[in-house]
Amino acid sequence: MSALGKVYLIGAGPGAADLITVRGARLLAQADVVLYDALVTPDMLELCAQAEKISVGKRSGQRSTAQAHINEQLVDCARRFRLVVRLKGGDPMLFGRADEELRALEAAGVEVEVVPGITTAVAAAAAAKQPLTKRGVARSVAFFTSSTAPDEPEHRSAGPAALPATDTMVQYMGGREAAATAERLLGLGRPADLPVVVVENCSRPDQRILRLPLSELAHGLEMAHGPVLVMIGEALRRRAQQGRDLPPAPGAYSV
Amino acid sequence: MSALGKVYLIGAGPGAADLITVRGARLLAQADVVLYDALVTPDMLELCAQAEKISVGKRSGQRSTAQAHINEQLVDCARRFRLVVRLKGGDPMLFGRADEELRALEAAGVEVEVVPGITTAVAAAAAAKQPLTKRGVARSVAFFTSSTAPDEPEHRSAGPAALPATDTMVQYMGGREAAATAERLLGLGRPADLPVVVVENCSRPDQRILRLPLSELAHGLEMAHGPVLVMIGEALRRRAQQGRDLPPAPGAYSV
Fold first, then answer.
1. Residue A86, domain member (yes or no)
2. Are A137 and A208 contained in the same domain?
3. Region of residue A30 (phi > 0: left; psi between -120 and 50: alpha; otherwise: beta)
4. Are residues B135 and B89 both part of a single domain?
5. Is B218 in a helix, a strand, or coil?
6. Mean pLDDT within B34-40
7. Mind telling me the catalytic residues of A?
8. Are residues B131 and B233 in the same domain?
9. Which of A230, B73, B206, B252 is deepest in the core (most CB within 10 A)?
10. Alpha helices, H only, chain A
């Protein structure tokens, strides 16, 4: 009796249904059950019309299913179904709480495979046509989250972490927290005109791209409502002949 | 006369043909011409059987087409074809020389769109089932290249750059250069047993995964022959019940 099902942790990518990998889309079409985040779009769920779908609504700043309960649901699904998909916004291995889910599944003896996804930083760079590395200018990039992300209560009292000493910096879930980052960078002597690109609702129909200098970042973020990614660094400086597609004025959103 | 063609810079991902995005695969199937890197696999090129294919063989450490010539070829193709794909290993915006190609195309008035790809770091993390961030342990990750990459001659005399001050560090094209990184990290007081995961030929049939402590990294790299990615940090520590799929002995490659 009782071969357990196999669980696939799959990265959904930034939102657009065709920015999942071919492998991810194929597995979604074969899945018996799909447990998905709030960041996964309805379009994406059409790729698994045949599957039972379970929302495990984790989303920064919103009421969310506790991680321990998600872990239990995953193990339970592996007992009841053959092909289980855990669909996560972005990539599962970056800011995805994958460690906890992998531990729970391994402890229960469930086979797991991970399918990578497009992490929002590279999708945002593509949308803005702005490379994160640049020959002679930027050969390192850091992805980080603030110390006050709602999912990380143990960090709240620890104070801010060191800022990454990389040429390009990308702050995930960088809403109000990115204003603090800007303040710290200015305090460290980074130039006021260091380029910043903010991408809201990356790859979705309501995507917005904001370009502005570091000194204006705090103000610019007041306009953002959806999930926001903040990219900072000299590599983000606008090219001379760029901008047929984006308005040139700092502070203006493009649609 | 003469609408110029449109150029798509598309990320091929780490190698496996089904780790390209659905959007990238669809565009490949529609392309009139595809200019591809040496890191793009033959399997991937089967996705564009109908297209004219031009190898622009850039590969670290091998003789490669000069970037200026690639830029010219791109503009020339946009004059001769309707749908031009520039297919790059990994993601175009990370270590992909995209800035130079975007500038050349924009200067010629050619419309460009960027389609993100799975960057090798997240594919390697998926292959090793080892998240790059981890709650309470690692909330920042840096991707970087060494100062002596063959494509960046202007860096040769500049000496080593500052190491990124992030929880997790991922060195791209990290063959011999990663040995120097290990030495510097040990000199900075990082623990000798800091976990390192080396992934060679990520996502390909000959993929190999090596786990070892920081102090043994230099020795471990002697075994590597193909493109190598080196991941360093506490988040890479093996889980207690992991390893049904990988041999536990440090220094041993898994197949």
1. yes
2. yes
3. alpha
4. no
5. helix
6. 92
7. 37, 58
8. yes
9. A230
10. 22-30, 42-45, 67-80, 98-107, 120-128, 176-187, 217-221
pLDDT band with cut points at 50, 70 and 90 for residue B229: very high
CA-closest candidate to residue A183, choices A214, A227, A222 = A214
Find the CB nearest B99 among A93, A102, A134. Answer: A134
Mean pLDDT of A187-207: 94
Q: Are residues A100 and A44 in the same domain?
A: yes
Give me the CATH number covering residue B74: 3.40.1010.10
Residue B71 domain flag: yes
Tell me the pLDDT tens digit for each residue of A20-50.
999 999 999 999 999 999 889 999 999 999 9
Q: How far is A251 from chain B (nearest CA, A)?
A: 23
Name the pTM for this structure.
Answer: 0.90
Chain B residues close to A91, C-beta within 8 Å: 122, 125-126
How distant is the Cα of B167 from the closest Cα of chain A, in angstroms?
Answer: 9
Average predicted confidence (pLDDT) for chain B: 87
Asked whether the beta carbons of residue B126 and residue A114 sit closer than 8 angstroms, the reply is yes
Q: Are residues B243 and B138 in the same domain?
A: yes
Tokens of A176: 């109000």
**What does the pLDDT look like over B86-119, one tens digit per residue?**
999 999 999 999 999 999 999 999 999 999 999 9
Report yes or no on A158 lying in a domain.
Answer: yes
Tell me if B1 is assigned to some domain.
Answer: no
Asked if residue B23 and residue B41 are part of one domain, the reply reads yes
SS3 B212: strand
pLDDT range class, residue B146, cuts 50, 70, 90: confident
Interface test with B, best of A9, A70, A99 (most B CBs within 10 A): A99
Q: Which residue has the tokens 């990308």?
A: A170
Q: How many of the other CB atoms lie within 10 Å of CB of A179? A: 17
Same domain, A134 and A217: yes
* Contact predicate A156/B156, CB 8 Å: no
Q: What is the pLDDT of residue B159?
A: 52
Host domain of residue A193? 120-254
Q: How confident is the model at residue A158 (pLDDT cuts 50, 70, 90)?
A: very low
What is the least distance, in Å, from the CA of A104 to any CA of chain B? 10
- pLDDT > 50? residue A153: no
Q: Are B134 and B246 found together in one domain?
A: yes
What is the pLDDT at residue A248? 40
